[in-house]
Amino acid sequence: MAQSIKDTTLNTVKQLMTKVRIIHLVTHGLLDDFGFGVPGAIALAPDPTPKTEQQDSNGFLTAGEIFDMKLNAELVVLSACETGQGKITGDGVIGLSRSLIAAGVPSVVVSLWSVDDKSTMLAKK
């Protein structure tokens, strides 16, 4: 049975991602390189920490962070714009999908195009 979470802050989602078999994130995708050498990020809610303590709480789960995770999920679906795109190299496309596979996920569903908000809402019903 699917379970929806209300606390979609970065740290909560990162913790839950290591514990579940199926991950389906309906959010916004970004193609920027956030300094990890692997382009791509998904937008989550920022962690509610005071500015003085804020380190990794901007709300972006980057491809570089995912690359370093150990996930047990069998499937990840990213319902967000252009999550299948990235940097094209001799080894293929480097981005969110490659990071998820490196983190241990055998099956990944991503998008190569912009995703309309209304269509996404209808698809998840």
Could you explain how this protein is built, in words?
The protein is α/β, with parallel strands linked by helices. The chain has 4 helices and 8 strands. Strand 6 and strand 7 form a beta hairpin. The longest helix has 8 residues. It is globular and about 40 Å long.
Following the backbone from N to C, one meets helices and strands in this order, namely HEEEEHEEEHEH
Distance between the termini: 14 Å
Count of helical segments? 4
Please report which band the strand proportion falls in: under 5%, 5-15%, 15-25%, 25-35%, 35-45% or over 45%.
15-25%
Q: What topology emerges from the helices and strands here?
A:
Elements: H1 10-17, E1 22-26, E2 29-30, E3 41-43, E4 60-62, H2 63-67, E5 75-79, E6 86-89, E7 92-95, H3 96-102, E8 107-109, H4 117-123
Parallel strand pairs: 1-5, 5-8
Antiparallel strand pairs: 2-3, 3-4, 6-7
Keyword list:
single chain, 3-stranded parallel sheet, 22% helix, 125 residues, alpha/beta, 3-stranded antiparallel sheet, 8 strands
Q: Could you provide a short overview of the structure?
A:
With 125 residues, the chain is an alpha/beta fold. It is 22% helix and 23% strand. It is built from 4 helices and 8 strands.
